[in-house]
Structures are given as C-alpha cells and as structure tokens.
Fold:
Amino acid sequence: MQILTGKEVAEKVYETLQSDCNAFVEKYGFPPTLAVILVGTDPASQSYVQGKKQACLSLGFGHRDYHLDAETSQDELLELIHTLNNDPSVHGILVQMPLPPHLDADLVIQNIKVEKDVDGFHPQNVGNLLIGKPGFISCTPLGVLHILDYYALSCEGKHVVVLGRSNIVGKPMASLLMQKGRDATVTICHSKTEELEQITKQADILIAAIGKPLFVTESMVKEGCIVIDVGINRVEDPSRKRGYRLVGDVDYEHVAPHCKAITPVPGGVGVMTIAMLMKNTMQAALQLAQ
Ligand code: GUN
Structure:
C-alpha cells in the first residue's frame, strides 16, 4: 500500500513557484498578489485564511487581508470586490466560503473579475472547464490531479467514483477526469444515491468529497483500489491541545490496508489546495502583467 503524501507533491510545486515568483518580481518590480476576504469569524475559515497568508508570505507573494464583520452588507462586500477588481496591484481575489446566510454567494462570485478568480468559482471559469478549455480550475480538484500525476497514477479507462457533487470539488473533479487526455469513466454519487456501496465497490479510483467524517468504510472499497480523501473534518478530541483532531471522509485505519494507494488526512489533499491557489495566483499575475 502506497501513501500518497500531498506534502511531498506540494513541496515540488512550491519549489517551482518560488523561482517563478523571483523571476516575476525581477521582471515587473512587484510581486504576484492575492487578496483574501473573510466575512465573520468561523474558526475553520479563519484557520484556512491564515494558511493562505502563510503561503503568500513564505513565497514572497503580496498579500492583502480583509476581515469583514459578520454583519457586512451585500453592497459593502461587492464594493470591496469592485475596488480589488480595478486595482492593478492585485492579481487574485478569493472570498472565503461559506459566507454568512444573509449574503448571496453566487452573486459575490459572479462579481469577481474572471481574470482574478483564482478559486475558479466564477461561472465562466466553470463553463470553460466543462468544455475542455480551462482558465482557472478550482484548487482542490486541481490538487488531486497533481497528486495523481506525481505518483504516475493514470485514470485512462479507469472507473473513477466521485463521492460528492459540490460546485467546489465533486462537479469540477468529475469534469476534469472525463476530459480527453484523462479519459476516465466517471460516476458521481451523492447523499440520495441508492445502493451506494455497490457503486463505490466498482471504483478503481474512489474520490471522497462529502464532508462526513470517516464515512467511507472498508466494506465500500474494492481490494486494490486507489482512494483519494478530500475531507477535512474536525472531530472533538479532548486529549488534543486544540480540543479536536482532523479526520478525512475515509476511515483510513480500516480502509488503507485494502488499497493500492491512499491519501492521508492531514498531509494529503488539504496541503495541495493552498499550493494550487498559489499556482493560480501566479498564473493570474503572469496573464494580467502582460
Ligand atoms: N471554503 C472551503 N474551501 C474553499 C476554497 O477552496 N475556496 C474558498 N474561497 N472558500 C473555501
């Protein structure tokens, strides 16, 4: 059984980004810059936003932090986005999700300039991905592709089962894998899927992205399957300093012995998401600076 350590893959990505960033600064005299907007105080979101800031700082990217009050109005948020859209020193704009319920996430995403949508959430970027002409690709599915490529795990002709149909992971993941060049046969399952276990057991590659801790058990996987665990779930654990530990959507301990290869949590897909965000920001900066 092979452990697919995202950390190792991310380190390689960061090495390349470091030299790309140095060359960019040398050429243009300013760094690729990411603006991150967080509305409210959700602890998980705060920790993700902090991780993105750290990545920017360690690579020498520029970073703008906007921590807005939970009561921020739709208009105030859109105004900030428009200001950043028109600021030539900002190349990537990310609004941390989820937003408080009074804000319309779809409208917010639609207002981010397509060329600065480093999350790949804008409908135009989503549509371009679907027709096989990707601009910015959502960071987590892009990270999964990088892991598969790094470990030379081909999807060609394989049955890939994606558990989860979110706009951020499940849908773009399925779309990427079925493209020409990847050539997987893709099945998407979700909370209403009947006979789930019978479908997941057919998977050569199983991608779990449903946000339910330890959901995938050993009876759901085929012997020799490749398992990619996208889940990052906090479960209470008083023995830990923080009072919780992170687990994936997969019951790693019991599933791993049956796998050909599997990603751990933490240290698997999660670390790749931020690496891909930095890669997208680099791409945005290069395109905008032309
Ligand atoms: N919330 C959870 N994952 C993500 C992500 O990749 N981007 C944004 N903006 N919000 C998230």
User: Anything to note?
Assistant: The chain has a mean pLDDT of 97. The radius of gyration is 19 Å. Residues 94-97, 119, 139-140, 168, 273 surround guanine (CB under 6 Å).
